[in-house]
Design a protein that fits this description.
Number of domains: 1
Strand content: under 5%
Radius of gyration: 15 Å
Low-confidence stretches: none
Oligomer: single chain
Shape: elongated
Number of strands: 0
Amino acid sequence: MRRTFRHIVLPALAPAVFFLVAATPVEVIGCFNRGLTALAVALVGVVAGLIFAVKCGRSRRRGEPDAHWWALSALILAIPAVGLIILA
């Protein structure tokens, strides 16, 4: 349960926040602030995804059986960046 929470639920917060901001009406926070917030969430997701991808590579080189959890986290954190490209 702890591993699932750490590698799936916590990284899934970034796509959830991104799509929540993207679905927010412009009248609520303004177009500029909405765009900057979405960009910031996507950028944080990309940086964290890259860090997790490096951790996955190191774990695979060491032969650790749990390396796929880091790869799954990196893929989940890449979702806001893909969403930003699609919505732009």
